[in-house]
DNA sequence: CACCATTTGTTCGTATGTATG
DNA sequence: GCATACATACGAACAAATGGT
């Protein structure tokens, strides 16, 4: 998956969609850490601020839990 | 204080007036940090751009000094 | 204990595009 | 055309937490 800067959806929403898919599909297991913002910055042509904005979306959705100093982890219980 | 979107004065000018009053009245002491643009965004129904525009007015007036990465501070010497 | 690298969080500065009156 | 307002994006700097040396 790649980001289209000229797509209808804003890049940060596109990235959120990509990462959400990786989580829901099970590509990244619950409790596992996802790539750091710096690593995502290398994988996608976006600034760290934009990366973080996408991650904030997923945190709001309850898919990710942050651990400052350690990283971002896939939530254990996305549903209840 | 609140912002009136339909007021005679543009919202960013209204906000500048409100914040100027807080500074001149001493509600926010010289050298002290003012609420971040994000916090002001929560307090007032304006976009960050508009918030910033109001703050730029106060910076131009010499009431505020910016410290990138830290915040905006009330100037020590509003006058000279 | 000190030091440092990594990582997330926060903040301001600047710029572009879009929309409205 | 201009002023105003919002959404988005990138850059930079600083802070705090963590973990290793």
Automatic annotation (TrEMBL), chains A, B:
<keyword id="KW-0804">Transcription</keyword>
<keyword id="KW-0238">DNA-binding</keyword>
<dbReference type="InterPro" id="IPR036388">
    <property type="entry name" value="WH-like_DNA-bd_sf"/>
</dbReference>
<dbReference type="InterPro" id="IPR050679">
    <property type="entry name" value="Bact_HTH_transcr_reg"/>
</dbReference>
<protein>
    <recommendedName>
        <fullName>HTH gntR-type domain-containing protein</fullName>
    </recommendedName>
</protein>
<feature type="domain" description="HTH gntR-type">
    <location>
        <begin position="9"/>
        <end position="77"/>
    </location>
</feature>
<dbReference type="InterPro" id="IPR000524">
    <property type="entry name" value="Tscrpt_reg_HTH_GntR"/>
</dbReference>
<keyword id="KW-0805">Transcription regulation</keyword>
<dbReference type="InterPro" id="IPR036390">
    <property type="entry name" value="WH_DNA-bd_sf"/>
</dbReference>
<dbReference type="Pfam" id="PF00392">
    <property type="entry name" value="GntR"/>
</dbReference>
């Amino acid at each position: 998956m790649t980001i289209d800067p000229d797509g209808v959806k804003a890049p940060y929403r596109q990235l959120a969609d990509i990462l959400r898919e990786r989580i829901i599909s099970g590509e990244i297991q619950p409790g596992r850490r996802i790539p750091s913002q710096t690593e995502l910055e290398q994988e996608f042509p976006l600034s760290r601020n934009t990366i973080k904005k996408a991650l904030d979306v997923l945190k709001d959705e309850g898919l990710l839990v942050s651990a400052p100093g350690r990283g971002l982890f896939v939530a254990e219980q996305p549903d209840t």
